[in-house]
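User: Can you predict the 3D structure for this chain?
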Amino acid sequence: MIRLGVVGHGGRISSVISHCLRAVEPDIRVVGIVDPDEQGARSRLADCDQQDVVFYKNLAQMVSKAKLDGLCIGTRCHQHTPYAIEAAKYDLPLYLEKPVAINMKQATALEKAFEKSRCQVVVSFPLRVSPLCLMARQLIEEGAVGSPEHILGVNYVPYGTVYFDNAYRDFAMTQGLFLQKATHDLDYMSFLMGSNIVRVGAMATWGRVFGGRKKANLRCSQCPEAESCLESPQNRKYNYSGGDPNDHPCVFGRDIGTPPNMNEDSSSTIMEFASGVHGAYTQVFFSRRDAQTRGATVSGYHGTVRFDWYANELVRVRHHAPFTDTIKAGSGMSHFGGDLELARDFVGLIQGKAKSRTTVQMGIQSAYVCLACKESAEKGRFVNVRQVGQ
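Assistant: Here is the predicted structure, written as structure tokens:
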């Protein structure tokens, strides 16, 4: 049996445990939890964990008493770093949710904490290890494009309202959607190019779609415009436009924040890689339904490889021969199959059979890139990206 301790037993980490970790190793038990909301945390536990789980006041107490084999951190974003820094003191395999840090002070402190730590970490970067991304990387390594000279990444998010009508609307917690969302994508783009991002020039648009002048703390059930508003529960259901179909906070409220201290409607960056090539990435949070797309196009002199996770499809184009290949992938997998790959890595780490493919250093490097993008968008200039170990 694998004895698991969890800090912050919320919806995301409980789903990872139930649907991914247990798919790899059914004999996993959550034996310890640190979470101030004991009732909510307990409601997310599987039946097999209900009887024996113990709630602890803090991480140190849980580590000393629970005889853990592994640790998961799934708190709110702003708490990932302090708990990870504490976990660095223990020789326990750690599953750490992203982003690993939300500001430069946190990121540099986290890097310092792990410089000499024996704690092995699996950071929740499922896109990097998803089957489509790995296939694209394999083709690039085999010479499908020649030397990779350019990459374009896109993410038209069909569920973007979650960042405006959910707890993620709290800018103090997220620090914007480069850190909250792009940390995934900029990481896998670096992976595909085989090179770190060293300089960025970013832009963001705030408050043109979401946010506005509606009173603070307004909910749909209290709003006289609910019948006509496209974001009301009844109209989301009627229009099949997605989002929370229940009563929720107003996405046009003043309490979402004011630019730039709020989540952006969309944001983009151009980036320079250490190899000398460049690329671009854009993310849009007001797209809906079939507008969804997420993936990348990598080009070189000899060919192009592009893929889209929502279409579950990869295309290889030969530039100098009349052949194009289309590869279909399986569907219905969490984070396009990446969550299951991370689960295999984490269980393998606990059992001493595997190494992490998404290390804490990779998580920190992605945070440095996202922090540079945030600074660039706010200040309107190019920003050099801090590098781990320098």
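The chain has three domains: 2-125+343-357, 131-210+259-330+364-384, 220-256. The longest helix spans residues 360-379.
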